[in-house]
Specification:
single chain, nine-stranded mixed beta sheet, eight-stranded parallel β-barrel, 13 helices, 21 strands, about 30% helix, about 25% strand
């Protein structure tokens, strides 16, 4: 079948709509002969019957495998001679105690950027020395808590923060290792909201302002400057941006190392994953090899950080996650004028932008497949939309599904283990779905689904009732 004239150029009609691209789905995903898909050895119908619809599903075995792959690829290329590699999982991508415990078991540290993330990781049993505390606007309470705990490092993001750290460390009498987040000015070639090292944005300290921040830290007897930090964006495939950022940071490192006990260069994360069959692979091998060569060149000049750190999130959690939805309605929409028309099949499901904001926020693309059965029907260009009162409520903007998709069918969306639950909301007073973990052929709830009662429970006026004083 020829592709629809409404389809974007990158989207191709699948030769088999029942096939599952192994790059996009958890390693345990399997379509049985009878057509239904199972995840982690549990059928999608069983998952929905037990936990409701929609649900996020996280395959912990895939999560573990992804963590091992990232750790071993980076260490294998870069941890040579006196260099070691530390991997800190970016908790903002997906945070549950199950996720934390699996990754801690694989030796990863954790990157937290708020008090909530910090406490969540700690409550999951992680030693605070394995935590890096980030954020561009840390409150005094957050700074005090991080120092009281003795986190592994605090990443400084402004002069104000350097001063606050100096004050709190002196007040507590606690020595704290700190790094400085440097705005390298490197453009990662990604969506504007995903690029985090451009000059005109909130993160990091400009290289021209670095000396003044270093001076504040140097004057604080309880602060110890141990490294420089950079993060240039997300969904990065080419090594070029990482190389340029590393070169710029190492030049600053060279200037500082004679007067400060530097040992760490943190190059952030942002490694890409494919969201559709048309997307390129992550290319982590090439990025790691290119960075190793760059580090070797600087080592020959006497600039040799002993610890190279990274903060991957999406590349670890994204492929471990799937979201399951149930179809509510379908609607054929004719698009165009006169003879220049084509049709798009709108498929409405029982979730939407409250459980996956990335499509409307970033223009992100996803892959959707029929999960409760197989089908030989002809492909139809579909737009998977949610139930919210918003025209931008789109989960998958463009993909092909069998044309006989119908109410009651179960659909699954790939690569939702990163930034879907984390960005979820109660828009339109909809409760957030459960996060269900799969391991060893069993499924269990990691995060409970929110009921309508849960959503309403935050309204104090409802709890007091209409007859309460001051209520109407």
């Amino acid at each position: 079948m020829a592709s629809s004239t409404l389809a974007p150029a990158w989207l191709h009609v699948p030769s088999d709509l029942n096939a599952l691209d192994s790059r996009l789905w958890p390693q345990s995903t399997h379509r049985h002969d009878h057509g239904e898909v199972s995840l982690g050895g549990v059928s999608v119908s069983q998952l929905l019957e037990q936990f409701g619809s929609p649900i996020y599903v996280v395959d912990l075995d895939t999560l573990r495998q992804r963590a091992q792959m990232v750790r071993d690829t980076l260490s294998g290329a870069i941890a040579l001679g006196n260099r070691s590699v530390h991997v800190y999982y970016a908790t903002k991508s997906l945070l549950t105690s199950d996720v934390v415990r699996v990754l801690a078991d694989e030796g990863l540290g954790f990157d937290a950027s708020t008090m909530g993330e910090l406490e969540w990781v700690l409550s999951s049993g992680v030693d605070p020395s394995r935590i890096e505390f980030q954020g561009n606007n840390k409150s005094l309470a957050e700074i005090r808590r991080a120092l009281e705990l003795g986190v592994g490092a605090v990443v400084v993001d402004s002069e104000w923060e350097a001063r606050r750290l100096a004050e709190v460390s002196a007040e507590l009498g606690r020595t704290q290792r700190v790094m400085i987040r440097v705005n390298s000015g490197v453009h990662a070639g990604t969506h504007e909201y995903l690029a985090t090292a451009r000059e005109d944005q909130k993160f990091g300290i400009a290289r021209s302002d670095l000396a003044s921040v270093v001076e504040i830290i140097a004057a604080a007897p309880r602060l110890e400057l141990v490294g420089l930090h950079s993060h240039i964006g997300s969904q990065i495939v080419s090594p070029d941006g990482f190389i340029e950022a590393a070169n710029r940071l190492l030049a600053e490192y060279e200037t500082l190392q004679s007067e400060h006990p530097l040992d760490t260069l943190n190059l952030g994360g942002g490694f890409a994953i494919p969201y559709t069959p048309s997307d390129p692979d992550s290319n982590l091998d090439e990025i790691a090899s290119a960075l190793a060569a760059t580090l070797d060149e600087w080592a020959q000049r006497g600039v040799a950080p002993s610890v190279i750190s990274f903060e991957p999130g999406r590349i670890i959690s994204g492929p471990a996650g799937v979201t399951l939805y149930t179809v509510g309605t379908t609607k054929q929409v004719v698009v165009g004028e006169d003879i220049e028309t084509d049709t798009r099949l709108y498929v409405s499901v029982d979730g939407g932008m409250s459980d996956n904001l990335r499509t409307s926020l970033y223009g992100a693309h996803y892959t959707v497949r029929l999960a409760n059965r197989s089908s030989d029907a002809a492909p139809a260009l579909v737009r998977l939309v949610g139930k919210h009162c918003e025209s931008g409520d789109i989960v998958v903007s463009d993909d092909y599904l069998p044309g006989d998709v119908t109410p009651g069918d179960v659909l699954m969306v790939a690569q939702t283990g990163a930034y879907c639950h984390s960005l979820s909301s109660n828009y339109n007073a909809v409760g957030r779905p459960a996060v269900v973990s799969l391991q060893g052929g069993e499924a269990r709830v990691s995060l409970k689904a929110e009921t309508i009662e849960d959503v309403l429970s935050r309204d104090v006026g409802l709890a007091m009732g209409p007859g309460a004083p001051g209520r109407v």
